[in-house]
Specification:
7-stranded mixed sheet, alpha+beta, 145 residues
Length: 145
């Protein structure tokens, strides 16, 4: 059995093996009936509708890792959730690039979708990762979410 970390922070230069992340959750979860994944992608528009040149994600690594681990532990305590992995990347990303991955294995699909929604929301609002939107007119830090 492959034991995968349940919370990963990766610099942009570090490759993510999404199939491996999914495989790790599958192999650690027994009796699952559903596996759902989420991939967060940089949009080409700002929160106000302007054009995005790129996003810059900064992170307080130690606190972010602890926060993500707590989220995965909390989700794993939900009845029917059998496996969870969250990976957030940081650095400079252009529109279309992937920055957030969530993989959840559950007994039933209804639990999977609820847990996925909670995982994405908590990751965006609780993990100390800051996002700067840069446009042709300049940049500004924005709330994640």
């Amino acid at each position: 059995m492959i034991i995968m970390p349940t919370a990963l922070l990766l610099k942009k230069e570090e490759p993510i093996d999404l199939p491996g992340l999914i495989r790790g959750v599958r192999e650690s979860a027994k009796g699952y009936g559903a596996i759902v994944t989420f991939t967060g992608v940089v949009r080409g528009r700002t929160h106000e509708g302007g054009e995005v040149s790129y996003l810059e994600y900064e992170v307080f690594e130690e606190a972010a890792r602890r926060s993500m681990e707590q989220i995965t532990e909390d989700l794993s305590a939900i009845r029917g959730v059998l496996g969870v992995a969250i990976c957030h990347r940081y650095g400079r990303f252009c529109p279309g690039e992937e920055v957030l991955y969530v993989v959840i294995a559950t007994e039933r699909s209804s639990v999977a979708f609820e847990a996925l929604k909670l995982a994405v929301s908590r990751t965006k609002h609780e993990v100390p990762i800051w996002k700067k939107e840069v446009t042709p007119q300049g940049g500004c830090w924005v709330e994640t979410g």
